[in-house]
Amino acid sequence: MRLAEIIELRPVPAAGLLATLTRRCPLSCAHCSTSSGPRGEDTPAEALRRFVGGFTPADRPEVLMLTGGEPLLRPALVADLAALAASAGTRTSVLSGMFFAADGRVPARILSALRHVAHFSASIDVFHEREVPRAGVFRAMHRIRESGIAVSFHVAGTAADDAYLADITASIRTEFDDQAAVLVNHIRPVGRAAGWAAARTVPLRGGEAPSPPRGAASGSPTAMPPAPCAMAAWPTVAFDGTVAACCNQRVVDGRPVPEHLRLGHIAHDDWAAIRRRCVESPVLRTIRTAGVGSCTDCRGLARRPAALDAAERSGSRPAAGAMDMLGARLQHDAGAASLLRRYGSDRYAPLVLLGGPGDGEDSS
């Protein structure tokens, strides 16, 4: 499964599920949006197995994205969830910080965990490279690719003109002969980066918005008018089993989750119920089709009863569901690079098309 296929599905309500497996990570990257560390919480394993085991061929997400923290600290759980998802027809993607790859080897337990995985992404940037050398990451990614899994890279830099971004993207393209897609984000002041990144980064259009498929970019609100929000389309399982309608890190980590963004909990809700709430919520329909301003505005809707009521009314209109689906289809058909021009790095957006046939856009 190519990265572009995953990104194209990102605006489609309930086409994917993001699942946090843990907030633990052996790395301590200064820009980590999740503030993960050695002693973070683990998401309840049995609840995750039960939830993913509830997928059916007739009612399932197209994509299950496993993330963290570092999901491969729980390789047996990755293997179980990917196998359960595959039995229903759902494809699994894993995003890793490559903690295991300093010497370029891929431990047997990791390769075994990936046997049912359709896509594997490695995070690499100037912060990761301080702990896991580039050469080791590249060698490990070749090994994973040789096992039959499509691979890609998630790269972060301070801005479009960051010299590191030019260097690392050129290095990846050369090393993998343009057969590995690259998703480029700009670092935002959230998580561990909150204390230092604000003065070095630029806000995204439309306010703080995470970059798909994982919330690695969150910026400051801007004065831009509201725009449809594709990030309110995929349910996100947080570290404690809460399911949110948004992957913005402040929503995923904050408690309580704003009620209009809370879809349920994997301990007592199944996928069918979560999907139904995601697709049919009038407020979420309004957010996806019209937007509500910045992410800060969205999180604060509960403190603005009139605005929340207006969103509820707008999303309850007879044509609201059809408009929601039409908007999702238009964004899907526009292609992955188009979406990343809104949520990632405009300059590097075409690199998501590497690795196979794209949507006709130039990937140079």
Quick structural overview:
This protein is of the alpha/beta class and 364 residues long. The chain is 34% helix and 13% strand. The model is unreliable at 199-223 and 358-364 (pLDDT under 50).
Task: Explain this structure.
The protein has 364 residues and is of the alpha/beta class. Helix content is 34%, strand content 13%. It contains 13 helices and 9 strands. It has helices at residues 3-9, 45-53, 75-88, 108-113, 134-146, 163-175, 249-253, 271-280, 282-289, 295-299, 305-316, 320-334, 336-343, and strands at 16-20, 63-67, 91-96, 119-125, 150-157, 181-186, 236-237, 242-244, 262-265. A 9-stranded mixed β-sheet has the order 6-5-4-3-2-1-7-8-9, with helices on both faces. Helix 2 links the parallel strand 1 (16-20) and strand 2. Helix 2 (45-53) runs parallel beside helix 3 and helix 9 (282-289) packs across helix 11 (305-316). It is globular, with a radius of gyration of 19 Å. The two termini are 21 Å apart.
Keywords:
364 residues, alpha/beta, nine-stranded mixed β-sheet, 34% helix, globular
Low-confidence stretches: 199-223, 358-364
Structural class category: alpha/beta
Tell me the quaternary state: single chain
Strand content: 5-15%
Main beta-sheet strand count, sense and barrel state: 9 strands, mixed
Order of strands across the biggest sheet?
A: 6-5-4-3-2-1-7-8-9
Categorize the overall geometry: globular
Write down the overall mean pLDDT.
89
User: What separation lies between the terminal Cα atoms?
Assistant: 21 Å
Number of strands: 9
Q: In angstroms, what is the radius of gyration? A: 19 Å
Helix content: 25-40%
Order of helices and strands: HEHEHEHEHEHEEEHEHHHHHH
**What is the count of helical runs?**
13
